[in-house]
Structures are given as C-alpha cells and as structure tokens.
Specification:
mainly alpha; Sodium/glucose cotransporter; 18 helices; globular
Amino acid sequence: MSIGSIDLGILAVYLVGVVLLGLWIGRNADSVSDFVVGGRDRPWWLILFSIVATETSTVTFLSIPGFAYSRDMTWLQIPLGFLLGRFVVVFLLLPQYFKGSFYTAYDVLNERFGGATQKAASALFIITRSLADGLRLFLSAIVLQEMTGIQIHWAVVAMGLATIVYTFFGGIRAVLVTDLVQFVIYIAGAVLAFALILQKLPGGWDQLVSVGEAAGKLRVFDLSFDLTQPYGLWAGLIGGLFITLGSHGVDQMMVQRYLCARKLKDAQRALWVGGFVVVAQFALFLLIGVGLYAFYQAFPPEVAFERPDRVFARFILDEMPVGLLGILLGAIFAAAMSTLSSSLNSCATAAANDFWFSSRDKNVSPKKQLRMVRVLTVIFGLIQIVVGIGGQWAKASVVSSVLGIAGFTTGIVLGVFFLGIFAQRVGEKAALVGLVVGLCGMSLIFFATDLAWPWFALVGSALTFAVGLVASYVWPVSAEPESNGTERERS
C-alpha cells in the first residue's frame, strides 16, 4: 500500500513544519520553569486545546469510527462520564496544585506524606507511561508503514525522532502550541472525511440516518448493568468519571498543563470547557463510523475488512482525492505526535523533579537543571522508540494488556491522593502499603477477572484507599517522623 508523491509531500511538509515550529517556539527557553511549566503564564484556551489533543491519539482517531461501524454509538456514554469527572477534578483536585510552586502532580504527595510516596507514585507513572506510549508509537507507525512501504522499525524511528526534536528544544511551550496546531489539523481532517462520506452517499445525510437507524447504529444509551460490559450507561458515567479523576486529576501528563496556567481559575476553565469539546469530538468520530457503515452498505468493499479499526484508514486511502489524502494523513500523525510529545515532556519533568532534583544540592545552577531535563527528554524518547520497535514481536493481547495496565495504575495513584485529602490520620507508611496492595490487587483483577476496563480506576482507587486507611491503624501518622506530615517543608 502506498500513496502518491503529492500526498506524501504534504505529509512531509507537515512533519518538517511541526519540528521547525517547535524549534522556533523554544528558542528562548532558558530555565526549568520555562521548559516544564511554560513560565506559568500560558492562556487558558491554549491549555484547553492541548489537553484535548493530548488525550486524542491515532488509535482514537481510527478506532472510534471503527467502533460505530461495527457496533453503535454507545461509546459516547464514556465521554459523558469524562465530562462529569472533569467537574469533580475542577473543584476537588485542581486547588491542590495551586497551593505551592509545584512542577509535578507528585509534589503534592511529597508535601502530604513525604519523598518516598512521591517517588513511588512518580515511578509508577513513568514506567507505565513509557510502556503505553511506546506501544502507541508502534501502533501509529503501522499506519506510516502501510502508506509508505518502509519497514516498521524505520517508521517507529522516524516518528519518534521527529517528536523528540521539537520536544527537546521547545519543552512544554512547544508542546502546547504544536498541540493546538495538531488539534486543528485532525479535527479539520475528520470534518473533511465526514463531508466526503455524505457527498458520496447518494442520499446524503438522510441515507446515513435511515441506514444507521435500521441497523441500530445510532443507539447511544445502553441501560443494562453488567460489570463485564464496558459500554453500558453506568460503566460510562461512573467508570468514566473515575477514569477522568485518575487521568486528568493525578496524572502528570495532564497536571503539567494546569501548572502552566496563570491562575487556578484559568486551569479550571480549560478543563471543564474542554470536557464539552471532547464529547463533541467523540460524537463526530462516531458519526463518521455510522457514515462509513452506510457507505460500505451502498458500495461493498472488494475485500472484507480484517478489523473494524481499519475501516476508516481504508476509506481515507481509497476514497480521498489527491491533496486531501495528505491532509488526512497529517491529521493521523497530528493525533499521534500530540500524545507522544506530551508523554516525553511529562516523563522527563517527573524524573528530573521527583528523583534527580530532590537528591541534589538545591543550589544546582538553572542551566544545569534545564540541561538535565532535556537529556531526560531524549532518553525517554529513545526508550519509547525501543518499546515501539519491540511492539512488532508482541502479541496483540500483550499490547492490549500493557495499555490497560497504564489505565488502571492512575486509579491507584488517585487512591493515594484520596488518602491525603480525606484521611488525615494516614501517614507515609500506610499510604505506601495502600499503593503496593492496590497495585497487586489490580494486577490480579486485570488478569484473572472479566471486570470491564471502565471500572478499573474506581476499583483501584477504592482498594488503595481502603487498605491505606486500615493500615493507618497499624502505622498511625503520629508514630512517624514529623517531616512526613502535612507541615513538612518542601524540598
């Protein structure tokens, strides 16, 4: 499978343009504050679009239309839970990050419990994020491989290096601006694709609705309650709420964006308004899937689709006219690179702040601190490239498992945050016991039960909180050194 020189040229211009934009934006970055929190002066609307672009990967761009194509629109129940979760994060968790000049989400745990809890939560984030996003890099590179014919490992390297370059020089400032550009590109690409589907359908929108209704593709709500099914209303609303509490409330990749805001209210506005943007975005992706179903009912493909998530990619390659195809390919890679660049910057920030800075003399020069964060950016980029190359030898079930683990570990960290906020009797030892037992328990649940993935964050946070609270009766906070309490001085 290959594309023409014009479309390939458009894609190349996009990739080079993003790198050059990142280099230009980051030309004046001369401090850690500039590099990791953008000088704490970024506008709320820029943070909003960066948040949305970061949580939208290539897998999302291609798989959500495939879901509606093969099933219906019940996936939209989960973004409704995401929206509810954002409001809880706005009022419960966001104020915690503006009580000091923090660089990571886990600085808050350092304040409340101590350095060991901070490091444990940060390490959990770094490990699972590197594995999950390395595999996302692999999944995105498959698209590049199929369209250009290059070998998969070179596709992984090409995408990985392009992302490393502009993240290395520009830091979070470059990430935020390129996220905005990438958001505009992939939304424009999705709208163009949907318009083309309607144009190619003989009956246009009316045909899409009639075919979709007849096949049950327009169903949004499933009121059944089954803990093994991920796409019911309660799994979407309750599970989606707790997923967002974990992913947007205590995950460094999102928290770092809030810390770039000028004030708390700006961060809050970026988060809750972004929730409505996400719901609208997923509704668009799902409607594209219904349109694809109607299109291929009218014009059956010569070869049956192997997987639903290949349907949209096949339509793009077969039906998009020259020029628009290049734009759609740029949209696919925009969705991928926005997530990957955010991952590199947040992992480097967490490793530097929570491990390297805390173990060094506080008088390390700003230039040396900045140099270390940039070096770590490259290191994590190379790690993700290695993981991405290794993805070709992993079974599909292993890929799914690692991505799932990355999802439920945020629930465990959320449980530790809940201990800090709601259980003042809990000290560092009890919190660490809760974290370890939560991780072991969720690993068992993930591999040995059929519990649907939207419930992972809820169960993980509840298990961690309950165990930590019980452990506090064995190791009460009063029995620990005073430096581990809420009054400890920030390091």
